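re: ur question from the group chat, yeah i did fold both. here u go
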Amino acid sequence: MQKEDHRFYAKWIGVRQRGKKRYILNQALINGTVAFVGLILLAGFLQDGLTVEYFTSETFMSNVLFFGVLSPIYGWTAARSRWNRNEDRFDDLERLNAAVNKDHH
């Protein structure tokens, strides 16, 4: 097992012990918040050039509502997808590790 794989494997054991629900909620919160802030700033830049007027406009409030609904959905979807990818990687490493150990015994 390569160093990066070994580090991931050891870390993922701890993540799994803390639980899927906790991981997805934490990652969804992080992903959703970053997406929300990024989209609000990007929309403001594209629409008004990120002026003070943008942050006091109806457009800003509309964007807050729209991205306030969209961002949590994105955050949850991204977190769930990442959990599944990490589980697949972990399972692959376990199979590889079992095969290597079997060959050595």
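okk and heres the other one u asked abt
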Amino acid sequence: MMTTCHMAVLRCQETSTTSLAHFDGTYVHEGAAEMVKSIINIRESTRAENNEVNIDLHLLGGFDDDRELSVKLSTDLLQAFHSIQVDGHTISLHLRTFCCTSLNTRHTTKRGAEISLPIIYGAAVELKTGQIYPVAFDEQARAPMCDMRGAKSLNSQNNKMCNIYKWRSERVVIPAFTFAPFPAAHEWLEQSDAFIRKHMSTSPTAEPLNFASHIRESLCFIVAHPEPMESVFKSNHELQYALQDGKWMLTWVKSCCFGL
């Protein structure tokens, strides 16, 4: 789900390998570079001999927000992908879609005042064809462990972007992480939805109705697991989920290096 945030989609012209990421404005250059590297790593596993890599780039998200956070992120993403270099490869990125900021803005009237809203809040990719289309996600589609992942985004000590889908095993993998202290989490849970939107969103007037409930889920996880390395990631184990009968199910865990 995006308001000022953006979505980037990379698709290799040769192998159709596709990478999708959600950018909130932090670690933009690092995240863009990791997306390209993931495309190259999968391409090399197919034993491709040509070092010239052609990748289609699609950028979506943001809108004309009052704080101009969206336009900054749009610019940062364009600069990040433009500057990417990978040793031993010639990277050509082809911008195919740019539905960002002013190009993703609609206007409406709320309580007598005109406000700007995003046209597209979410998008999906058809892997067989590469087609990108707007979507509204069902709550079940946010699984697995959306409260845990939201808590990491909200209060993790290491908030770098993380690739959680492992294509070889077709599993979602959540590495171990810990939180910064958040002693006021209980107080936040006592506040109204309007208060949470105002103080925890980059664009309060543009948020969908379920924004506050998602924040509450994350806060509840933080309250229930103030030390996730002890209660969730015991012995520094990552969590792995496999899709079974349409649901993401916890399968097994293994030791991993600390951090995301």
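fwiw on the second one: The longest helix spans residues 28-45. Confidence is low (pLDDT under 50) at residues 256-260. idk if thats what u expected
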